[in-house]
Design a protein that fits this description.
Number of strands: 8
Largest sheet: 8 strands, parallel, barrel
Order of helices and strands: EHEHEHEHHEHHHEHHEHEH
Shape: globular
Low-confidence stretches: none
Structural class: alpha/beta
Radius of gyration: 17 Å
Number of helices: 12
């Protein structure tokens, strides 16, 4: 059975004080109601990874992740953060391939595959994001588009490597826009993804892989989204910046 997971992506928000306060508030609320069957991952800005990891250490089913990593192992790459640096901070998850990285920083599939492989080499779990832009959806080419993204990246891994990856489907047109794909849209895509995985890796790995949905997930729509067949949790952006709202989303998984 696939692991239930909810990921908070704080993006480039909060300073040190507000990051500490947000984490404190979340952990305090969680102490009153912690469903340990659901993995909670806080993906925070680079400067606060060590601090937040220290705060969360010892709280069952809560983990800390980075929002990105370098595609290079080490060297003269000013401003980059390597997976070995993340590992030294006891960071165990990293978001790779978020649409904002693809669009704003022009990250291509070959670079993303390198990031995935480097992360796995340091025993850091990649949370791999993918999804279609609006014009592809409007042409009804979304399944082919997403299949190509997967074929160029995670489907090049072997079974053992792939079993350690978390997938996150995020229709680009629904991220930060307040728009959410219809429940039918979400279920259709998650089924299509599992069909692709079944062909490549077999039924067992397809069924046991965690596939999250990301795209304007909030406390109002989370329960309906999480109840869909094939959806194992969510990648939450803006709504994760409010501790109470984020916990409500987590608890929507039941």
């Amino acid at each position: 059975m696939a692991q239930k997971i909810v990921v908070a992506n704080w993006k480039m928000n909060n300073d040190e004080y507000s990051s500490k306060a947000l984490t404190y508030d979340f952990l305090k609320l969680l102490s009153q109601q912690n469903n340990t069957d659901i993995k909670k991952i806080l993906c925070v800005p680079f400067p606060f990874l060590g601090m937040i990891e220290n705060m969360c250490r010892g709280t069952e089913s809560v983990y800390v992740g980075a929002q990105n990593c370098s595609s290079h192992e080490s060297g003269a790459y000013t401003g980059e953060v390597s997976v070995s640096m993340l590992s030294s901070l006891r960071v165990t998850f990293v978001i790779i391939g978020h649409s904002e990285r693809r669009e704003l920083f022009n990250e291509k599939d070959d670079v993303l595959l390198e990031k995935i492989k480097l992360s796995l080499s340091q025993k850091i779990t990649p949370i791999f994001c993918f999804g279609e832009p609006l014009h592809i959806r409007e042409k009804n080419q979304h399944i082919e588009f997403v299949t190509a993204q997967l074929s160029n990246t995670v489907l090049k891994l072997n079974k053992e490597e792939f079993s350690k990856v978390i997938l996150a489907y995020e229709p680009i047109w629904a991220i930060g826009s307040g728009k959410t794909a219809s429940l039918e849209n979400i279920e259709e895509m998650h089924k299509a993804i599992r069909d692709v995985l079944k062909i490549k890796f077999g039924n067992s790995l397809s069924s046991n892989s965690s596939i999250l949905y990301g795209g304007s997930v909030n406390s109002t729509n989370a329960q309906d989204i999480f109840s869909l067949s094939g959806v194992d949790g969510g990648l939450v952006g803006g709504a994760s910046l409010d501790a109470k709202v984020f916990l409500e989303i987590v608890n929507s998984m039941g």
